[in-house]
Structure formats: structure tokens, C-alpha cells
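Progress note, project year one: complex with alpha-D-glucopyranose.
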Amino acid sequence: MKVKRKLTGRNALAGLLLLCLAATAQAQDNDNERMQWFSDAKLGIFIHWGIYAVNGIDESWSFFNEQISYDDYMKQLEGFTASGYDPQLWVDLIKGSGARYAVLTSKHHDGVALWDTKLSKLSVVDATPAKRDLIRPFVEDLRKAGLKVGLYYSLLDWSHPDYPNKTKSIKRYTSDSLRWERFVTFDFDQITELSNNFRPDLYWFDGDWEQSAERWKAPELRKMILDFNPSAIINSRLAGYGDYATPEQGLPTHRPADRYWELCMTINDSWGYQGRDTNYKSPSEVIRIFAKCIGMGGNLLLDIGPMADGTIPEQQVEVLKELGRWTTKHAPAIYGTVAGLPDGCFAGPTSMSRDSTVVYLFFPGNAGGELMLEGVKSRITKAVVVGNGTSLEVKEYLRPSWSSHAGVYFIKVPEEVLDEQMTVVSLTLDGKLQME
Ligand code: GLC
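Model obtained:
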């Protein structure tokens, strides 16, 4: 009897453990499903649009770092007209670039809301000559175009009377739990407005570094968002309660440990519009960086900065257009792919079909006339220039019939099939990828 009871107890424990494991696996499945569109999308366009475009100065940081007084910074409100704002044109440009989602700054650290918030007077509707909600028409046009909607929201708000600091040296208070409570409630309420008005697919938080997860009530905020929309995605800048990592400007050299990540990068050296900044990356530079992100299984969130009237500067338009030509031509190697071969197999980025039967090799220039591929044991049944269709001859060396090691593949790519920015060759394998 005693033995039996003991066994039953053990069985119950094992059963509980299995249940837990099943629940974890289920949660993991749900997460994978939730993250799928993001992981397939590869390219997003980030838009920093705010009153800082009026003078063409650093977004919010210029007054925080006391390069300009707070009052002078806020004078820019008077010049923010949005008079030439054409959201449909923005969306055409974004879609044309090959991006599958966009992230617009709904409110930067300066606290100026781009939508008709009922919780503060500091919005483009109430405080600028633009006098209207600038987010709504953009979100509507994005949705019509089949693009996902991301909204950037700064958790910290240096303008809010209940936020502890205003600039790097002006502190409003050091500890005052009542005021802090009021501030967090304000954040939650504004985020609720964003949810109700726009139902974003992606919440892109920023500015979490000034407070702890506990102070931001990060788990509660995450829960609130997911209760509202169970398929929403949240970036990492919610004090550790997000879904994916956001390296900024620095391109990782190796595949990051995070399952999901997105490099956010400026098109020149500024997030917002700054006329003096002419240090634009060329289309070829942007494409090479983008290819590296794809090859390491990540996304690129390329930032543009429209002017105060809503015009997107010509240099930015040009980069997006050329990016669009390239992404359209090479779509199969980009969308829905996963990270490619490990380092050392090929001198350039590689991506792979999700079922790992097709490998894509990316290379600028003519790659010395012949591509060289190491460490791949699978047989290559077909090599084709993506977006061009030319079949290529594949030669294999260093692989006698008795050897179980991978050989070395050489693939000659004729000059006339090369892309002006970056060429892509697809290799169809005789099954799932087998590595040395
Ligand atoms: C930084 C900056 C901010 C910018 C953001 C974009 O966190 O604070 O100005 O909006 O990066 O990733």
C-alpha cells in the first residue's frame, strides 16, 4: 500500500512536470507564431518626425544636453506645419523600398505627441500649426498597402511636470512616489490611447534606461498590451520585457545570441531631419549592411527623417528607391529566409530557405570571378543567379568518392549577370543542408 502511494505521488509529480513542459512548449509555439511576420519581414523603415526638424537639431537631446534652452527648443512648435505631408506618398516610398513594416515616432523624449492625445496639451494638434493628428492617416494608408504598423513611444518624457528630470542638470524631484505614480499612469493612459486609436502591430519603446523595470511597471505594461492585442510585438526597450533585441547603429560582427533582433540605423548620421548632415550612406552601403543582417538572421530598421513640412529629402528618397529595385529583384533570397551558413564557409553574407534546402550567397563586385564555398557536404543540384535566371556551372574539388569530408565548390559568375550593387546566387541542395 505504502509503495503504491509513493508511486502515485511520483506519477503525479511526473504528470505535473509533463504538463509544465507541454505548457512551456505551447507558449513557445505561440511566441514563434506571434513573431513570424516580423522574422520574415527583414526590412522596416523607421521614421523620426518631430519639431526638431524645424531647426534641424538633435531630437530631444539638444535641450537635454543643454545645447539649446528648453524654451528655444519648444519654439520649434510654431514652425511645425506638416503643410506638405502626404502620407500616401510616404507609404508608396516605404512599400517601394521593399520594407514590410514602418515604425513612426508617436512621441519622442521631448513629449510632443504626433496624435490627438487627450492626456496632454503637448501635441501637434494643440500646439503646432499642423493642427491635426498626423499618425491616423499614415496608419490607415500603411494598412491599405498591407504593411505592418509600428509606433515608437518614449517611456521617459522630459517635458512632463511629473517626470523626475527635465534636462541633464534640471531635476524636478529625486523621490516622490505620488508624482511618479501619476507619471506612470500617464504613460499607461497614453499607450492605451495608442492601442485604441491605432492598434499597432509593433510597439517600439525607447528611453527605458532612466528607470528600472519595476518603476516602469514593465511586466504590467507588457500584459496590458498583450491583453489588448495578443499578437502585438514589443521591442526590447521595455527594461527586459520585450520580444527582440535592438542593436543601435553598431552592426554585429557575429550572429547575435538573441533569436530575434533588428538593427536600427540612420540613413545619414541623424535620426531626425538635419539639413547640415550630408553624410549619407550610399545605396550600395545600405544594401551591404542589410545583406549582413539577413545573413545573421536579423532585420534592418532603416531610419529616415522627414522635414518639418513632411517632405522626405531627395537623398533619402534615392536610397529607398534603389533599395527597392534591389529587394524586388532578390526577393526570394530575402523574405522568409533564415540565417545562412556559419562563418568561414563563404566570403560574404548567406541566407537560407526555412526548410534549409536552398542557400543564397550574397556578394558585391565580381567576387574575383569565381565564388568559393567550403564546408558544405550537400550536393548542389542547381545554381542560379537570383532575379536574372542564368544557370551557373558548379565545380567541386577535394572530394574523392571515398571521402566523407566536404569538398570545395567553385562557381563561376559571368560579368554580364552581375548586379550593380550586390549579386545573389541561389544554390538548390539535394536535401536539407549537411555541413562538415
Ligand atoms: C536612442 C535615442 C533616440 C533615438 C533612438 C532610436 O535611444 O535616444 O534619440 O530615437 O535611439 O533608436
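Residues 48, 59, 61, 206, 248, 264, 271 surround alpha-D-glucopyranose (CB under 6 Å).
The first helix runs from residue 2 to 41.
No further modelling is planned for this target in the current period.
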